[in-house]
TrEMBL record:
Keyword Hydrolase attached: yes
Taxonomy, superkingdom: Bacteria
Species this protein is from: Streptomyces polyrhachis
Keywords: Hydrolase
High-level lineage: Bacteria, Bacillati, Actinomycetota, Actinomycetes, Kitasatosporales
Protein name per its UniProtKB record: HAD-IA family hydrolase
InterPro entries associated with the record: CbbY-like, HAD-like_sf, HAD-SF_hydro_IA, HAD_sf, PGP-like_dom2
Keyword field contains rRNA processing: no
Pfam families the UniProt entry points to: Hydrolase
Length: 234
């Protein structure tokens, strides 16, 4: 087994518990600020997560709730920047927690000289402060949806990370929490470790090299440890 040179992490639901108590809360606050009656409970938001991208999610919801398609798209485009601002406020208040095992896994990778990068379709305006607040300056390359608007399962964000870092897919592994994320990583030629969460417990992870319940699952941790270089820098 070739030693790992790098690990590329997704953010939402993978490194942090951000969906239920982060994005959902920010969407609901944006509805309230705009004087709209719409609210997303935990179960409703779980269903809406099947639609990738916050603005697309809003447009779908507004149209499904009876707005005309043009009105739904316009309202979504107006509301999404407000939601991003509110999400950033939650991040800066320390409301978004790392998933169990995230900090420990990052520390172990750093101890063995394995670089860590980020490939997310989240907006840089909240992703960057979240990573800094939750983990500090440990990520070498961070590519977000601000630079690569193609949503997963498109492999575009992973392909950008590989281009920027010069890494070969065979020496890199991705870590994801959703079926769309796994498909994106695999389409970019990467092996992918799946770390399920409450919202993705029923996703199809048949393309993943490991199907785990979280970042602290012994199956995922053991897979990584079995491929660590002998010491810092290999």
């Amino acid at each position: 087994m070739r030693p790992l040179r790098a690990v590329v992490f997704d953010v939402d639901g993978t490194l942090v518990d951000s969906e239920r108590d982060g994005h959902r809360v920010a969407f609901n606050a944006a509805f309230e600020e705009a004087g709209l009656p719409d609210r997303w409970d935990v179960a409703t938001y779980g269903t809406l997560l099947r639609i990738a991208g916050g603005e697309r999610r809003l447009a779908f919801w507004f149209e499904a709730s009876g707005r005309l398609p043009g009105e739904a798209r316009e309202l979504a485009a107006r509301l999404h920047p407000q939601k991003t601002r509110l999400m950033r406020e939650l991040v800066e208040a320390g409301r978004i927690a790392p998933r169990p095992g995230a900090r420990e896994l990052l520390a172990e990778l750093a101890a063995h000289g394995v670089a860590v990068h980020v490939a997310t379709t989240g907006t840089r305006a909240w992703v960057e402060p979240l990573l800094d607040t939750a983990f500090g300056p440990c990520f070498t390359t961070v590519v977000t949806g601000t630079e690569v608007p193609d949503l997963k399962p498109s492999p575009a964000v992973y392909e950008r990370v590989l281009t920027l870092t010069g890494l070969a897919p065979h020496e890199t592994v991705a870590v994801e929490d959703s079926a769309n994320g796994v498909r994106a990583a695999v389409a970019a030629g990467l092996r992918c470790l799946a770390a399920r969460n409450a919202y993705t417990a029923d996703d199809d992870f048949s393309g993943a090299s490991v199907d785990a319940t979280g970042l602290d699952d012994p199956r995922l941790v053991g897979w990584v440890r079995g491929r660590l270089p002998a010491g810092p820098g290999g």
